Amino acid sequence: MPLAEFALISRFFAPLATDSGALSLTDDACLIEENATCDLAVTTDALIEGVHFLNRDPANLIARKALRVNLSDLAAKGARPLGYLLALALPRQVDEAWLEAFAAGLADDQRTFAISLLGGDTTATPGPVTLAVTAMGRVPRGAMIRRSGARPGEAVFVSGTIGDAGSGLELIKDEAGEGPEAQFLVGRYRLPTPRLGLGVALRGAATAAIDVSDGLLADLGHIAEVSEVRISIDAERVPLSGALRGLRGSGLDTIVRAATAGDDYEIAFTAASERDALEAGLRAGVPVTRIGRVESGKGAVMIDAAGREIPISRPGYSHF
């Protein structure tokens, strides 16, 4: 049986990360000293056809999602994006029309986020389309928001709404993407919004943060592990969009599926001051919801209205 993703990283690759800026490979980005007042946050994510996107997804949206999921990592660290590298492995059936659309998607988001392609690599593959983006961003010296800062007594928050992208993927697979609610959810899957403004606003307010890629419960579990705390999420506080409620209802089953689905690319974070957390959301123009608390102990759990822990067998997406 293969090792789980984080056990694999810990066993084989963390021993190679000897520089202090690597943070023992326990965070969303590494930290590189740029000058006396500024650090560089650097992150990379790979996307594979059939795993992270579907072969019928539009090429321009595949490109934009690949860039945005990396910008989302920078957002969770409080960094402003600077530029990115792109590595592409392309099967021979990919034609010029696909590449033109792919490049146009990148150009659109370069204008949106005021960044540039800085380099990369292209190669052929007999397998599916595979692409990897490495994004770099600047953050004031010592201001990067890490996963390791959560402490008992603090509150837990999340931006936006949770579960939209997971439901959107289900609709695509079921070929049931008709109607405004369905289109909204499909759009949330295909084109996430990196919360860059919120990340900057959270500097000094958030004690720990992570972007929600594997699932709200799973990703808060990563904060809990690195911070050596327990995080309890109140199920009824998890924010659901009107579109998700309209199609899936708002019962406990829907909430659990939303909190474990992944691909939301919202920011989940902890803060000692609820006022500071909510004011950061107001400054960024992004809704922020208090969803739980940091406690002594281990792991991340969901609690029902009666205060009982909800049994959940799969807290989020796992690659292995």
Notes on the protein architecture:
It contains ten helices and eleven strands. It has 320 residues and is an alpha+beta fold. The chain has two domains: 18-140, 60s Ribosomal Protein L30, Chain: A; 155-303, PurM-like C-terminal domain (Phosphoribosyl-aminoimidazole Synthetase, Chain A, domain 2, Alpha-Beta Complex), CATH 3.90.650.10. A six-stranded mixed beta sheet has the order 7-9-6-10-8-11. A five-stranded mixed beta sheet has the order 1-2-5-3-4. Helix 3 (96-113) links the parallel strand 3 (80-90) and strand 4 (116-124). The model has no long low-confidence stretch (mean pLDDT 94).
Classify the beta-strand content into a percent band: 25-35%
| CATH architecture verdict of the largest domain | Alpha-Beta Complex
Unreliable stretches covering 5 or more consecutive residues: none
CATH superfamily of the largest domain, called what?
PurM-like C-terminal domain
Quick overview of this protein structure:
The chain contains ten helices and eleven strands.
How is the topology of this model organized?
Blueprint: H1 5-13, E1 30-33, E2 38-48, H2 59-76, E3 80-90, H3 96-113, E4 116-124, E5 130-140, E6 155-159, H4 164-173, H5 180-190, H6 196-201, E7 206-211, H7 216-227, E8 230-234, H8 242-248, H9 252-261, E9 267-271, H10 274-284, E10 288-295, E11 299-303
Parallel strand pairs: 3-4, 8-11
Antiparallel strand pairs: 1-2, 2-5, 3-5, 6-9, 6-10, 7-9, 8-10
Helix pairs in contact: 2-3, 4-5, 5-8
